[in-house]
């Protein structure tokens, strides 16, 4: 259907994904932004929680899944990046795979962050003994909303709004771990995966 994301082959996006990975690594907090920027830096990651069965550590490189209730379509996202809320700046991106309700791949490619919308830091204690992303004292629950742009072959880039949620067991309020994504007529809500923020100067 025309309102869904356009198709893209794995081979044709490999170079772009590799380039994006380099850009994210350079621009993520702790490197180019580090502690030199004005105000607090927020790093976000879709993380893996390992080992399976008895997890003790969160590390980068996870995949989160969202589902659109109306169509049954799903989208898998990887990604990481950063934001400086006081300056209204944000960076990052990752890859996506959009599947129809039948399970067949409809589109795949990559996305980049194009703008900062909002940030809300929330209380809570990181529940694992080891933090493989950053310092465990800087791990944070929260809610970060970003403007993003999806790139796939066969058509123009598509803009969307991505809201990343991180909820610890001791965080007050609803357990809204994961992400929400609105793109075109689709609204994906979290159906699996883990997210994590780190806040530092």
User: Main sheet?
Assistant: 13 strands, mixed
> How many β strands by DSSP?
13
Number of domains: 1
Oligomer: single chain
Class per helix and strand makeup: mainly beta
Uncertain segments: 7-38
Q: Which descriptor suits the 3D outline?
A: globular
* N- and C-termini, Cα separation: 45 Å
Helix run count: 1
Strand content: over 45%
Q: What percent of residues adopt helix (DSSP H or I)?
A: under 10%
Instruction: Give the SSE string.
Output: HEEEEEEEEEEEEE
Mean pLDDT: 85
Rg over C-alpha atoms, rounded to the nearest angstrom: 16 Å
What does this structure look like?
By secondary structure, the chain is mostly beta strands. The protein has one helix at residues 10-27, and strands spanning 41-50, 57-60, 64-68, 74-77, 80-84, 89-99, 105-122, 130-131, 139-151, 158-166, 178-183, 186-192, 194-200. It has one domain. Helices cover 9% and strands 50% of the residues. Residues 7-38 have low confidence and may be disordered.
């Amino acid at each position: 259907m025309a309102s869904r994301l356009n198709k893209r082959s794995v081979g044709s996006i490999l170079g772009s994904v590799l380039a994006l990975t380099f850009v994210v690594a350079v621009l993520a907090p702790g490197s180019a932004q580090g502690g030199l920027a004005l105000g607090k830096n927020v790093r976000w990651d879709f993380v893996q929680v390992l080992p399976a069965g008895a997890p003790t550590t969160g590390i980068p490189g996870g995949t989160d899944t969202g589902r659109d209730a109306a169509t049954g379509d799903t989208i898998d996202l990887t990604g990481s990046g950063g934001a400086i809320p006081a300056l209204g700046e944000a960076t990052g991106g990752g890859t996506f795979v959009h599947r129809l309700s039948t399970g067949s791949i409809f589109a795949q490619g990559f996305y980049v962050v194009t703008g900062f919308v909002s940030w809300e830091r929330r209380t809570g204690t990181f529940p694992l003994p080891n933090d493989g992303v950053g310092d465990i004292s800087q791990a944070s629950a929260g809610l970060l909303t970003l403007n993003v742009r999806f790139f796939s072959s066969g058509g123009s880039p598509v803009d969307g709004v991505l809201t990343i949620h991180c909820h610890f067991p001791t965080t007050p309020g609803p357990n809204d771990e994961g992400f929400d994504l609105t793109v075109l007529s689709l609204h994906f809500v979290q159906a699996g995966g883990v997210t994590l923020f780190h806040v530092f100067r």
